[in-house]
Amino acid sequence: MPQFNAGESKVAKAPIHNLTGKAFDYTGLIYMGTDLAVMAEVPFHLNAGEEKQVAFPITMPSVQGTYPVHIGVFSGEQNIALYRAAEDVIIVLTMPPAPCVYCGGTFSTEAELITHMGTKHPGKPYLASIQLLQSSIVQGGYNAALVNVRVYIPDGSYYQFHLYIYNDACASAAYIIGNPAGFYEASMSILGYGVASGQGYFFIPAGTYPVYASCVRVVGYELQWLYRGVDTGLTIRVV
Ligand SMILES: [Zn+2]
Question: How far lies 185's CA from each of 114, 115, 124, 171, 228, in Å?
Fold first, then answer.
């Protein structure tokens, strides 16, 4: 089965043949998943008897799994055809390694980062991989840009991993109890708004922001900060 990265942009091409003796305007739709989520919608025209390749620009789903693919063709309100593609599509998460949150070292593979952590910073929690699925976010509203992370947790404590772009106000967090210790994957969001004490809800000003990370271990009512304000090397634009 064909395999793609989560969030990857691709163009799917499907040959479509007008078997009738009349010209028609059509709308083609590509659906992925058992819930038939619409991934692309493309208008096109076919003359009587004409066949052409129709191109569908698709942004792959952000969740890993196996997706059946369907193609629908409509003319006006009328459903002309619904096909299931011969092969399902597999979506995988191949996330780039994060920099070392303790010393800023950068690595070309996650395995190198893991080796570094094991020798230089043993027994500490860290970001292993981080992947921002969009390069910009619309200011305000309840807009959110999805970020996939893989984190390492060294023990059975309760940890909070945060990402933020503007002061401390716009944090998104993954709350994980490391039971068992090991690697955990989570989806987090960068938000186009913030909530700050004394200021309430506010829009983040337009601009380009580094994505910062922090991690805290929560023991009872005590917050034990492991790292804070670490530059992940990623940036996002607020527009
Ligand atoms: Zn380091």
Answer: 15, 19, 17, 18, 20
Cβ–Cβ < 8 Å for 79, 72 = yes
Round to whole Å and give the CA distance between 171 and 186: 15
Structural domain includes residue 60: yes
Q: Which of 92, 124, 155 is the last residue of a domain?
A: 92
pLDDT tens, position by position, 82-96: 999 989 999 887 788
The pTM score is 0.65
The predicted-structure confidence for 15-61, as pLDDT tens digits, reads as follows 999 988 999 999 999 999 999 999 999 999 999 999 999 999 999 98
Same domain, 126 and 230: yes
- CATH number of the domain residue 81 falls in: 2.60.40.10
Calculate how far, in angstroms, residue 122's C-alpha sits from the geometric centre of ligand 1. Answer: 10
Dist. CA 207 → ligand 1 center (Å): 30
In a domain, 233, yes or no: yes
Residue 76, both tokens: 């006006």
Residue-range definition of the domain harbouring residue 65: 3-92
Task: State in Å: Cα 186 to ligand 1 middle.
Answer: 22
